[in-house]
Amino acid sequence: WDLHAWEALKYTLPNSNCDGRVLLTTLNVDTASTACKESHGNVNTLKPLSQEESWTLFCKKTFPAESCPSYLEGISKCILQRCE
């Protein structure tokens, strides 16, 4: 998301105080701040996972019944490096 996309999107969302919620995710701090000011919301900043946490999550999701097979560890770690 960027500020231009938010400006185009915000008019499609209802503003009727009917307890509806929108969760906006973005890496752009300006977009998050602008959206929050206009909607009286909150910005929640998430910290990135450590390499160890990333590896643990990746293995749990990719190999739920077992640990990562040794012959796939190299390619699995290459995939994780691309996600930084």
UniProtKB/TrEMBL annotation:
Molecular function GO terms recorded: ADP binding
Superkingdom of the source species: Eukaryota
NB-ARC domain: residues covered: 1-67
First and last residue of the signal peptide: none
Protein name per the record: Resistance gene analog
